[in-house]
Design a protein that fits this description.
The chain is mainly α and 225 residues long. The protein is 66% helix and 0% strand.
């Protein structure tokens, strides 16, 4: 098979995958075209196999909320409607209890208290403290709060957002708090939906090495001049 034939077939396959993802997302060709900054006619050509560029494909994957690979690899299936795997909360709680036991012990030791002294503060036995620190017994929140405060810390110091995923309401609260810290002009920029891709590109560029950034800059200069 000649290269031109292989390319034509590949473009047809990509076009079919693009159409499949678009229909699955319930979007029209006009919706996609407007998001990509092109015409509905040109987008229709993409689906017919005229050849879509990688940047456009990346933008489309973002718009349709599908993995990029599903738009070029016919062996990949689109994710289910509820793409996120359920959090294995029972296992996570067990793990978190073990971690908290270590934190509890470290907190006590940092404050220079022995188990009996901690037990006296909480009105329980030293044996129970040993059970807490071994992770064999869950620490009631009220006891934990008293203990850490007596050790000069706060309950928030023991929370770990990286281990236990935050709920949507808490994520929104934290996001709003961070937005309030931004200068007004920057906050307005972040909140504009049309700037989302620019922010993603900025995040991508910030993770690149200097050599890669230099090559991109040189390419942009070549295009400009």
């Amino acid at each position: 098979m000649e290269a031109s034939q292989a390319i034509a077939i590949r473009n047809k396959i990509v076009g079919i995958l693009v159409r499949r993802a678009r229909l699955r997302a319930g979007k029209s060709q006009r919706d996609c075209a407007e998001f990509l900054g092109t015409s509905p006619h040109k987008f229709a050509k993409y689906e017919q196999g005229q050849g879509i560029s990688l940047p456009h494909l990346e933008g489309l994957a973002y718009f349709l909320e599908v993995p990029l690979i599903t738009l070029w690899d016919e062996n990949q299936t689109l994710p289910a409607e509820e793409a996120d795997d359920p959090v294995p909360m029972a296992s996570m709680i067990k793990l978190r209890t073990k971690m908290l036991a270590v934190q509890f012990r470290q907190c006590r030791q940092a404050a220079g208290l022995n188990r009996q002294q901690m037990a006296d503060l909480l009105g329980c036995s030293a044996y129970r403290i040993s059970q807490y620190e071994a992770g064999r017994r869950e620490i009631p929140l009220a006891e934990l709060e008293v203990a850490v405060e007596q050790c000069g810390q706060s309950l928030a110091d023991l929370c770990d957002d990286e281990i236990v995923p935050l709920g949507r309401a808490e994520l929104q609260r934290q996001f709003a708090a961070r937005l309030d810290e931004l200068p007004p002009d920057l906050r307005d920029f972040v909140l504009k939906p049309t700037n989302t891709l620019y922010l993603r590109i900025a995040m991508l560029l910030s993770s690149m090495k200097a050599d890669s950034l230099r090559q991109i800059a040189e390419t942009l200069l070549d295009i400009t001049y």
